[in-house]
Design a protein that fits this description.
By secondary structure, the chain is an alpha/beta fold. It contains five helices and six strands. The structure holds inosinic acid.
Length: about 190
């Protein structure tokens, strides 16, 4: 086993691996965690995603598998877009649904339906002494048309609660209140605690 961390505060200033194949997710996490003194390194382990209904189950299973392989402090993030009137679709299938039907496909499914939605981000951190699970949400609505060029995935059709612009139009707002930002802030706080 790796040398035990003397206390959780040791995570500050230590390298933690973010296991992801998604460069956008990595870049968002790197910027935010740097502010709390945590530097991260990207590693893509090509983990097979488990079939589950919840992002937190996917993140936990992947983090445990990743820790078995590299035995270093790490976290995995699983996220998705959950649309209320579609019973949470595309949810944990967000990545593959986007590939198959695209943003236009989602907009077509929503014709005549309510557009309330939320992004969910689940993080699972593992080291030799603890497993930390975090799950955060960002509520909003699906726009009528895709707009904006920033961000990734569903950003061009997601308008956060109380806003008028999509995440792809307003990167600053995304950085302030996204599901990932909330989850990463909570991770910083947990790792800073003794
Ligand atoms: P996974 O976490 O790798 O399963 O992929 C989640 C998918 O959800 C991504 O590929 C995106 O399509 C979507 N998604 C997750 N977070 C965001 C976000 O912050 N903006 C836009 N789309 C997102």
């Amino acid at each position: 086993m790796q040398k035990k961390l003397a206390h959780n505060g040791d995570c500050m200033g230590k390298k933690i691996f973010f296991i992801t194949s998604n460069a956008h997710k990595f870049s968002e996490a790197q910027k935010l965690l740097k502010k709390c003194g945590i530097s991260i390194k990207r590693k893509n382990l090509h983990l097979e995603e488990v079939r589950a209904q919840e992002c937190s189950e996917v993140a936990k299973a992947c983090a445990i598998e990743a820790y078995k392989r590299i035995r270093k402090p790490l976290f995995v993030e699983d996220s998705g877009l959950f649309i209320k009137s579609l019973n949470g679709f595309p949810g944990v299938y967000s990545a593959s649904v986007l590939q198959k039907i695209g943003l236009r496909g989602i907009l077509a499914l929503l014709k005549g339906k309510r557009r309330d939605a939320e992004f969910i981000c689940a993080i699972c951190y593992v080291d030799n002494s603890k497993l930390v699970q975090i799950c955060k949400r960002c509520k909003g609505k699906i726009s009528k048309m895709p707009s904006g060029r920033k961000g990734f995935g569903y950003d061009p059709i997601f308008v956060p609660q109380g806003g008028k612009l999509t995440f792809a139009q307003d990167e600053k707002t995304k950085a302030e209140l996204s599901h990932r930002t909330a989850a990463l802030k909570a991770l910083c706080a947990r790792l800073a605690k003794r």
